[in-house]
Amino acid sequence: MANLLVTGGAGFIGANFVRYWKAQHSGDTVTVVDALTYAGNKENLDGVDAELIVADICDHSAMSALVRDHAIDTIVHFAAESHVDRSIDGPDAFLQTNIIGTHSLLKAAKENWLDGDGRPHRFHHVSTDEVYGSLGPDDPAFSETTAYEPNSPYSASKAASDHLVRAYHHTYGLETTTSNCSNNYGPYQFPEKLIPLFLINCLNGKPLPIYGDGMNVRDWLHVEDHCRGIEAVLQKGRIGETYNIGGGQELPNMAVIDGICAAVDAAFAKDAGLAARYPDAPAANGKSSDSLKSFVTDRKGHDRRYAIDETKAREELGYHASRTFEEGFAQTLRWYLENEGWWQALLAR
């Protein structure tokens, strides 16, 4: 049995991880710490056997006491500011949470595990493929040895946190692992990211704002596959190592958007009741959802392409994504249609 501390566990990926971990490891104790900022939602943990502590990871004394008092032996660190657009408009919060917050947790871990009782432990840091920068159309995919070239305040702050984790392992001997993931999607994703935003906009008849020419490429990873990848790192990963976790679904944004529109239209054609629930949707009025497409000025410093080489995770950990994008998105669409109350409450805030 393990005692896990999951930071940011009321957010999108963190909450999915808590749900996945408790389903697979019911005997483990899971404590969640989350500041419940705009993207944190305690309802994401409804029905899950996990204690939620509302606190800021930048509060070092609180984090050290939490690790001590809950006998934590495993930290899975999700807590981060993560939306690139917000980092462009207000980078200070990203440096504070992603860099200072990560250092606060590392110090707390060192105090309790290395300077304290020396218990077996693991500090797992969840990062992003964005730290590697941008790829050209013919460049090889990001591997764990790709040089860091972050291009946004968000990715720069995550790169800094990655380096801090590495430093605490090599300098102090803290037992760490890091995973760098590609674009996540799935249940409980806050509706500022592309897939939930465009899906909900299709339902509500609102514009679909497409940056630039819409041909920026991302590797899409269903959040449960990401959780499986982290589980594999925790169970089989080598201490001090980094593992890239991808979905193997490299798609331009326009293909994703077209898929969203087509799936929404198909759902309305199959279920006549959706027209009554969402009367402003084009699909409720005999039109196609792609009529909502609207091209807008490109994001500043917009990375053109990300792609993940997951050879290391596959060969060392036995990890591979279990879903195609079509399968994963179909599951995601069903979840959002069945959980309207969850996202309506967020939009009403």
Automatic annotation (TrEMBL):
PANTHER family: DTDP-D-GLUCOSE 4,6-DEHYDRATASE-RELATED. Residues 5-331 form the NAD(P)-binding domain. It is an enzyme of class 4 (lyase). Its EC number is 4.2.1.46. The keyword 4Fe-4S does not apply. PROSITE patterns: ADH_SHORT. This is dTDP-glucose 4,6-dehydratase. InterPro entries: dTDP_Gluc_deHydtase (IPR005888), NAD(P)-bd_dom (IPR016040), NAD(P)-bd_dom_sf (IPR036291), Sc_DH/Rdtase_CS (IPR020904). It comes from Sphingorhabdus arenilitoris. The keyword Calcium does not apply. The gene is rfbB. Its cofactor is NAD(+). One of its GO terms (molecular function) is dTDP-glucose 4,6-dehydratase activity. Belongs to the NAD(P)-dependent epimerase/dehydratase family. dTDP-glucose dehydratase subfamily. It comes from the Bacteria. Keywords: Lyase, NAD. The lineage of its organism: Bacteria, Pseudomonadati, Pseudomonadota, Alphaproteobacteria, Sphingomonadales.
